[in-house]
Design goal:
269 residues, alpha/beta, 6-stranded mixed beta sheet, 4-stranded antiparallel beta sheet, 10 helices, 10 strands
Length: 269
């Protein structure tokens, strides 16, 4: 693995049960201070990969390292220390609906630091201002739109100025203006703080506009391609070309594997 890698995934195999392997002998490295996109079709293991890096699940085999230290999902103390340095934007926001916008962003600081409330207040307002929602601080989550909730979740993810920020579908549910602003914010935050950013997304255009390099995972849970946006755009690989151009026909199947349709409906003799 490269010497400048902040996170490494080394020959990882993982499945939620014995019937299907989600990630099959996957090796990736994420360079310190860079923005890396992780792309691929639905069900190829992108979100699962983030969960493994965060220690939510244990690998079936293979190792994951975070700043040189193996991630051990069984070691709660190690996970707590690691997660203090990690920010996560969840795919569906995962906001606390009983708390206000302000309290959601303040939560990780109250959980992980001993900062006085006046400092927490200043930092929360600064983070909310960065995502354009300082004025929404007193609102409850039920009072904001889906796109606004996604931006609240982003403010919470960067509340502690983490060394590693993982974004799971950061552009989902955003209008074109908010999407462009969010993409620019991800890039700006990464460059200003020196953080390492991992972006899981289906949005090829937005990812390619801000990422340093990208991985494409195949439907078999393996690395189909890796390179800079320019290299992937120029790729002649059929699977890479189909995904980047959104072509309906190609090696990536639309249908999840299933028995024959007529057979399943009992129409065969």
């Amino acid at each position: 693995m490269p010497a400048d890698a902040f996170v490494t995934v080394d020959h990882v195999v993982f499945g939620y049960d014995s019937s299907r392997t989600v990630l099959n002998d996957v090796s990736l490295s994420f360079a310190r201070g860079k923005v890396t996109a992780i792309m691929g079709g639905s069900g190829c293991g992108k979100t699962t990969l983030l969960r493994l890096i965060g220690g939510v699940y244990r690998t079936n085999s293979g190792t994951i390292t975070f700043d040189g230290q193996p991630v051990n999902a069984r070691d709660k103390e190690q996970l707590f220390r690691m997660r203090r340095r990690l920010g996560m934007l969840f795919q569906f926001g995962a906001l606390f609906t009983d708390l206000t916008v302000f309290e959601n962003v303040a939560f990780p600081m109250r959980e992980h630091t001993a900062l006085p409330e006046h400092m927490i207040s200043d930092i929360v307002l600064m983070k909310l201002n960065a995502v354009g929602l300082r004025g929404a601080a007193p609102l409850r989550i039920a009072q904001v739109s889906g796109g606004m909730a996604r931006r609240v979740a982003l403010a919470r993810a960067i509340a502690l100025d983490p060394d590693l920020i993982m974004y799971d579908e950061p552009f989902a549910g955003l209008d074109p203006i908010s999407m462009a602003v969010t993409a620019n914010l991800i890039r700006t935050l990464n460059d200003a703080t020196g953080a390492t950013s991992l972006i899981v997304s289906h949005d090829v255009q937005e990812c390619f506009s801000i990422c340093d390099d990208a991985y494409l995972l195949s439907s078999q849970g393996q690395v189909a391609a890796h390179g800079t946006p320019q290299e992937l755009k120029a790729s002649g690989d059929p699977e890479v070309r189909q995904f980047i151009k959104g072509e309906p026909d190609g090696p990536v199947r639309f249908h999840y594997p299933a028995p024959g349709y007529a057979e399943q409906l009992g129409l065969t003799p």
